Amino acid sequence: MVPAEQLFAPLFQCIEGGEQHQRMPLVLGPDTPFRPYLEIAYALRSCLEQRARHDYLVQRLRPHVDVIIGTLPPGLQAHGLLPRSAPPADFRPLEQISDAALRAWLIEDGGMIYGELQQDELARYFAAIRPYVAPGGVMVDLGSGLGKVVLSAALSLPFQRCIGVELLGYRHRLAVQRSQHLLALARQELARLATQQPLSATTALLLPSGVHSTLSHLIELPSRIAFIEADMFRVELRGASLVFLYSTCFGPLMAALAHKLAGELQQGALVSTTTYPLQHPAFRLLQHFPAGTLAWTSVFLYQRYGDWDGAALDAAPSAYQPDPAEWEARLRAELAAR
Ligand SMILES: C[S@@+](CC[C@H](N)C(=O)[O-])C[C@H]1O[C@@H](n2cnc3c(N)ncnc32)[C@H](O)[C@@H]1O
């Protein structure tokens, strides 16, 4: 048996700190799929930068407070994803943007907020789901950011493959870099250990989640990790045995995600969400970990079960219902302070 704690500690250490990464603005090339996002972002920013248009900005945003995370949409803040360069001449002003398009923009923008669970939260999460995870399945993180959950899952549990799906190219590239760093460090740690004791693929290894495995778990790490740059709604999930969603900023997307997951996942597949439950008859709740027990926010674990005819369900009313008057007062104070 190898000393697992010593072996794993530097590996987990090297995937820490992603929250502090420098946000990269989107690039406004002719082929960017983010052109519609950027057009509305520029239209909103133009209103923000002209005091005389603040009333109009508030008036347009107010009907959508239930999908705005915080006060001013994150994409309009200094660290947002909007380039500083001037918009192309053919981009329309806010007056020509429909309410529906603006709402969709706010939902997309909120979903691109970045955050990671802490390593101790992830450790508790993997230990908690361990009884439900059969060796050899495929874990998928939808919205995988810099890859922390995918890499931690590959270290912690005996998945055959852990896959991250991330929309933003620069985050995807950072995840690939972090993965390469982790793999190099794992090779180094194994080489160092081999100088101290005889090792083989069948040497016993206790995984951080408490699962008994062998050293092949780490030797095969390179083939057990993959990252894809894609929109999660366009990725086929049929083979997944666990879908992880750090869904705290996906509130308005939950109904569409539940529909997709119900349509594509096999019976028995697991889904976990944070903050928002997965309200769909094709899923049964296995465990609910209230906020403050496993992580800072609620964590829900579901299993795909039973028949479902594929019919769309009515979207549940938004679980987030701020008081519009209170939100407006906060926004006006923020605008006045600019
Ligand atoms: C809160 S972060 C979570 C990152 C990672 N899952 C973790 O827990 O460390 C959510 C990520 O989802 C990504 N995202 C948002 N919408 C997406 C979409 N439609 N497809 C893929 N990724 C998306 C965001 O860019 C962001 O990196």
Describe the structure.
With 338 residues, this protein is an alpha/beta fold. It is built from 11 helices and 9 strands. It folds into 2 domains: 4-15 and 114-304, Rossmann fold, CATH 3.40.50; 35-113 and 326-336, no CATH class. Helix content is 36%, strand content 13%. The longest helix is centred in the middle third of the chain and has 26 residues, at 169-194. The radius of gyration is 22 Å and the shape is globular. The model has no long low-confidence stretch (mean pLDDT 94). Bound molecules: S-adenosylmethionine (SAM). Residues 111-112, 114-117, 141, 143-145, 148-149, 165-168, 171, 231-233, 246, 249 line the site of S-adenosylmethionine. S-adenosylmethionine (SAM) binds next to helix 6 and strand 2.
Mean pLDDT: 94
Largest sheet: 7 strands, mixed
Cα radius of gyration in angstroms: 22 Å
Strand content: 5-15%
Tally of helical runs: 11
N- to C-terminal separation?
A: 60 Å
Bound molecules: S-adenosylmethionine
